[in-house]
Specification:
Protein name: RNA polymerase sigma-70 region 2 domain-containing protein
Organism: Eiseniibacteriota bacterium
Distance between the termini: 20 Å
Pfam families: Sigma70_r2 (PF04542)
Oligomer: single chain
GO molecular function: DNA-binding transcription factor activity
InterPro entries: RNA_pol_sigma70_r2, RNA_pol_sigma_r2
Length: 92
Amino acid sequence: MTEPRSGQLDDTQILLDRIRLGDEQAREVLYARLLPGIRRWARGRLPSGSRDLSETDDLVQIALSRSLSRLEAFESRGRGAFMGYLRQILLN
């Protein structure tokens, strides 16, 4: 997966903060930004029973939606923390 551009990491934190305040546009922007990368990551790493393309895409979308609706459970601990959080959700 490609690394975020310079400044994008700060943008991610800003978007997360805005989402916590109820900003739906920030949710859509972050969702669109993260979906392609987490989808690529998941396709090669989920258990074989979940690797069907449509099942993987469904799981990724569910995990991303749930993570964004439960941001109070997420505490950023530096670079890549939210993507790591998403990966862990998918593996569980």
